[in-house]
TrEMBL record:
PANTHER family: CYSTEINE DESULFURASE (PTHR11601:SF34), CYSTEINE DESULFURYLASE FAMILY MEMBER (PTHR11601). The keyword Isomerase does not apply. The lineage of its organism: Bacteria, Pseudomonadati, Pseudomonadota, Alphaproteobacteria, Hyphomicrobiales. Its cofactor is pyridoxal 5'-phosphate. Catalyzes the removal of elemental sulfur atoms from cysteine to produce alanine. Seems to participate in the biosynthesis of the nitrogenase metalloclusters by providing the inorganic sulfur required for the Fe-S core formation. This is Cysteine desulfurase. It comes from Mesorhizobium onobrychidis. Gene3D superfamilies: Aspartate Aminotransferase, domain 1, Type I PLP-dependent aspartate aminotransferase-like (Major domain).
Length: 384
């Protein structure tokens, strides 16, 4: 199988597995057991992982809270910060945020907060003029992701943060899709709260972290109760192997030449596909997107048909999400102006840093065959 769904989940890096293994086998103590040396060793491993994550972000270890992933980190940032709609009651969220940002924000609108969606342009970039009009001293929080999971758009988070801070609002950034390929310095970006996920960056599934600047951290309220772990902010025994794995996955900064090569292979795939299918459309930004992200549509052919034809050889994903068995057009693609038919035709292809040129040639040939077969089936795209 050629795996081109790295933005959904990336393979575990061998060095991450090596670091985790002792804590899955012989080192099984509870990291919160402070009565014996085995517990101290587990606690020490977690402390080192926390240091690595903080180091990667330019933060202090005390500003890192372990979570089960970016979903929980996003929930903790938004619901944990926005408890009382006084004195500020407005929350601004980007239109193409992940649902783990949009859903908690929506929940707050039932608790007296006014949640306002920030429009994006055809590339998915937040409209800074609209943001400027919406920012005033009623805004408590602005939540904007660093990198989008469907179209790879990169937000100007540093500018957004400067604008938000000028009116005294705080900034949360979902950086789940950024850690694998770019530097993240929370101070340079001016971010107050930042969410991370292990499995988008060569780490394990089931772990992530929330960075909360010291003075913001004290304003957070827990979502999970029942223990004093994470300074009372997140009850529950920390999963030592997962925390260690996240630490190692975070430790290495991606190097520029590897990222350029990654992007170059993505562009080769785009060119191979276009050579087969000149009508192919590309969704999302033309330049400056996630180096592995390609979101394409083949007019007249439903993404479901192509993806089914590609099985079991190639893993790519649909542009539209399936909720409770009902396909619904992606809110991201809708926000950048696609109609329901174009959404149903969208295929997200996400390459990893180690995807090879040879795999891409085979992928392009497989797409050409899949398109022929899908057209021969005679079905036309249906709106989701
Ligand atoms: N935010 C973004 C931008 C994502 O891509 C994802 C994963 N699809 C999440 C949040 C949720 O991450 P996790 O799987 O770690 O909960």
């Amino acid at each position: 199988m050629i795996y081109l769904d790295h933005q959904a989940s990336s393979p575990l890096l061998p060095k991450v597995l090596d670091a985790m293994l002792p804590y899955l086998t012989e080192e099984h103590a509870n990291p919160h057991s402070d009565d014996h040396a085995a517990g101290w060793r587990a606690a020490d491993a977690i402390a080192q992982a926390r240091e690595k994550i903080a180091g990667r972000l330019g933060a202090d270890a005390g500003e890192v809270i372990f979570t089960s992933g970016a979903t929980e980190a996003n929930n903790l940032a938004i619901l944990g910060l926005c408890c009382e709609p006084v004195p500020r009651n407005r929350i601004l969220v980007g239109a193409i945020e992940h649902k783990s940002v949009l859903a908690p924000a929506r929940a707050l609108s039932e608790r007296g907060f006014k949640v306002i969606t920030l429009p994006v342009d055809a590339s998915g970039i937040v409209d800074l003029e609209a943001l400027s009009r919406l920012l005033d001293d009623r805004v408590l929080l602005v939540s904007v992701q660093l990198v989008n999971n469907e179209i790879g758009a990169v937000q100007p988070v540093d500018r957004i943060a400067a604008m938000a801070h000028a009116v005294g609002a705080l900034v949360h950034c979902d950086a789940a899709q950024a850690l694998a390929w770019r530097a993240i310095d929370v101070n340079a970006l001016g971010i107050d709260l930042l969410s991370l996920s292990g499995h988008k960056t060569g780490g394990p599934k089931g772990v992530g972290a929330l960075y909360a600047r010291h003075d913001v951290r004290v304003q957070l309220r827990p979502l999970i109760f029942g223990g004093e772990q994470e300074g009372g902010l997140r009850a529950g025994t920390l999963p030592t192997p997962l925390c260690v794995g996240l630490g190692v996955a975070c430790a290495s900064e991606p190097d520029d030449s590897a990222v350029r090569a990654w992007q170059g292979r993505r562009d080769s795939l785009r060119d191979f596909l276009r050579a087969h299918e000149p009508n192919m459309v590309i969704h999302g930004p033309v330049v400056g997107r996630h180096p592995g992200n390609l979101n394409v549509g083949f007019p007249g052919v439903d993404a479901d048909q192509i993806i089914a034809q590609l099985q079991p050889d190639i893993a790519v994903s649909r542009g539209s999400a399936c909720t409770s068995g009902i396909p619904e057009p992606s809110h991201v693609l809708r926000a950048i102006g696609l109609d329901a038919v174009a959404c149903a035709e969208a295929v997200r292809i996400s390459l990893g840093p180690l995807t090879t040129e040879q795999e891409l040639e085979r992928t392009a040939a497989a797409f050409a065959r899949a398109l022929l077969a899908a057209r021969a089936e005679g079905r036309i795209a249906v709106a989701g």
